[in-house]
Amino acid sequence: MRMVKSLSSMDKSRRVVDISRSGVLNGLFGNVVVVGKECGVCGKVHGKGETLVCFRRYFVCMVENDEEFRRMVMFLWGRDCYCRGCRGNSVLCHGEVIRSWLYVNNEGVK
Protein backbone atom coordinates (compact mmCIF):
# COMPACT_ATOMS: atom_id res chain seq x y z
CA MET A 1 0.00 0.00 0.00
CA ARG A 2 1.28 3.43 -0.92
CA MET A 3 -0.27 6.66 0.37
CA VAL A 4 -0.59 9.44 -2.19
CA LYS A 5 -1.17 13.08 -1.26
CA SER A 6 -3.06 14.18 -4.34
CA LEU A 7 -4.92 12.63 -7.21
CA SER A 8 -2.60 14.32 -9.71
CA SER A 9 0.45 12.59 -8.21
CA MET A 10 -0.92 9.08 -8.73
CA ASP A 11 0.31 6.58 -11.25
CA LYS A 12 -2.81 6.18 -13.39
CA SER A 13 -1.99 2.56 -14.21
CA ARG A 14 -2.51 1.44 -10.59
CA ARG A 15 -5.82 1.04 -8.83
CA VAL A 16 -6.49 3.74 -6.25
CA VAL A 17 -8.63 3.23 -3.16
CA ASP A 18 -10.23 6.20 -1.39
CA ILE A 19 -9.82 5.52 2.34
CA SER A 20 -11.64 8.70 3.41
CA ARG A 21 -14.75 8.60 5.59
CA SER A 22 -16.77 9.07 2.41
CA GLY A 23 -14.64 6.61 0.43
CA VAL A 24 -15.17 3.04 -0.75
CA LEU A 25 -17.67 0.78 0.97
CA ASN A 26 -19.35 3.71 2.72
CA GLY A 27 -16.10 4.83 4.34
CA LEU A 28 -15.15 1.42 5.73
CA PHE A 29 -11.48 2.45 5.88
CA GLY A 30 -12.07 6.01 7.12
CA ASN A 31 -10.85 7.37 10.45
CA VAL A 32 -13.67 6.87 12.97
CA VAL A 33 -12.05 9.37 15.36
CA VAL A 34 -13.21 12.85 14.34
CA VAL A 35 -11.32 16.00 15.32
CA GLY A 36 -13.41 18.17 17.66
CA LYS A 37 -15.98 15.48 18.48
CA GLU A 38 -16.18 13.02 21.37
CA CYS A 39 -14.06 9.97 20.61
CA GLY A 40 -15.92 6.65 20.60
CA VAL A 41 -12.72 4.91 21.70
CA CYS A 42 -11.59 6.96 24.70
CA GLY A 43 -14.39 9.49 25.25
CA LYS A 44 -12.12 12.55 24.90
CA VAL A 45 -12.26 15.31 22.30
CA HIS A 46 -9.14 15.27 20.09
CA GLY A 47 -7.49 18.12 18.24
CA LYS A 48 -5.80 17.94 14.85
CA GLY A 49 -2.97 15.42 14.89
CA GLU A 50 -4.23 13.70 18.05
CA THR A 51 -6.52 11.02 16.60
CA LEU A 52 -4.06 8.34 15.51
CA VAL A 53 -3.55 6.69 18.91
CA CYS A 54 -7.28 6.01 19.23
CA PHE A 55 -7.65 5.11 15.56
CA ARG A 56 -4.85 2.56 15.99
CA ARG A 57 -6.63 1.03 19.02
CA TYR A 58 -9.90 0.86 17.05
CA PHE A 59 -8.24 -0.53 13.92
CA VAL A 60 -6.26 -3.27 15.70
CA CYS A 61 -9.37 -4.32 17.64
CA MET A 62 -11.34 -4.55 14.39
CA VAL A 63 -8.76 -6.58 12.44
CA GLU A 64 -8.24 -8.94 15.38
CA ASN A 65 -11.94 -9.53 16.06
CA ASP A 66 -13.76 -9.09 12.73
CA GLU A 67 -12.64 -11.52 10.04
CA GLU A 68 -14.63 -9.75 7.30
CA PHE A 69 -13.03 -6.39 8.17
CA ARG A 70 -9.58 -8.02 8.17
CA ARG A 71 -10.25 -9.54 4.74
CA MET A 72 -11.29 -6.15 3.38
CA VAL A 73 -8.15 -4.50 4.82
CA MET A 74 -6.01 -7.13 3.10
CA PHE A 75 -7.64 -5.95 -0.16
CA LEU A 76 -5.57 -2.74 0.19
CA TRP A 77 -2.26 -4.59 -0.13
CA GLY A 78 -0.34 -3.34 -3.19
CA ARG A 79 -2.78 -0.55 -3.98
CA ASP A 80 -2.42 3.21 -3.83
CA CYS A 81 -4.60 4.84 -1.19
CA TYR A 82 -5.84 8.40 -1.02
CA CYS A 83 -7.48 10.23 1.89
CA ARG A 84 -9.36 13.42 1.02
CA GLY A 85 -9.18 14.69 4.59
CA CYS A 86 -5.39 14.45 4.83
CA ARG A 87 -4.22 15.42 1.35
CA GLY A 88 -1.23 17.69 1.59
CA ASN A 89 -1.41 18.04 5.39
CA SER A 90 1.77 17.73 7.40
CA VAL A 91 -0.16 15.72 10.02
CA LEU A 92 0.09 11.93 9.67
CA CYS A 93 -2.92 10.26 8.10
CA HIS A 94 -4.79 7.25 9.52
CA GLY A 95 -3.74 5.54 6.30
CA GLU A 96 -0.25 5.27 7.76
CA VAL A 97 -1.68 3.12 10.58
CA ILE A 98 -3.33 0.85 7.99
CA ARG A 99 -0.17 0.78 5.84
CA SER A 100 2.12 -0.14 8.73
CA TRP A 101 -0.28 -2.88 9.90
CA LEU A 102 -0.35 -4.33 6.36
CA TYR A 103 3.44 -4.47 6.15
CA VAL A 104 3.72 -6.24 9.49
CA ASN A 105 0.78 -8.60 8.87
CA ASN A 106 1.03 -9.43 5.20
CA GLU A 107 1.12 -13.20 5.58
CA GLY A 108 -0.23 -14.97 2.52
CA VAL A 109 -0.57 -11.77 0.47
CA LYS A 110 0.93 -11.87 -3.00
What does this protein structure show overall?
The chain is mostly helical and 110 residues long. The protein has one domain (2-104). Helices cover 34% and strands 8% of the residues. The chain has four helices and three strands; from the N terminus they run E-E-H-H-H-E-H. It has helices spanning 24-27, 52-65, 67-74, 94-104; strands spanning 2-4, 16-18, 80-82. Strands 1-3-2 form a three-stranded parallel sheet, covered by helices on one side. Helix 2 (52-65) crosses helix 3 (67-74) and helix 2 (52-65) packs across helix 4. The protein is globular and about 35 Å long.
Number of helices: 4
Number of strands: 3
Q: Structural class of the secondary structure composition?
A: mainly alpha
- Rg is 14 Å
- Sheet with the most strands: spatial strand order: 1-3-2
**How many individual domains?**
1
Query: What is the rounded distance between the termini?
Result: 12 Å
Segments where pLDDT lies below 50 for 5+ residues? none
Approximately how much beta-strand content do the residues carry? 5-15%
User: Based on CA inertia axes, which overall geometry fits?
Assistant: globular
The major sheet is characterized as: 3 strands, parallel
Order of helices and strands: EEHHHEH
The overall pLDDT average reads 83
Q: Helix content range of the residues, please?
A: 25-40%
Task: Give me a quick take on this structure.
34% of the residues lie in helices and 8% in strands. It is built from four helices and three strands.
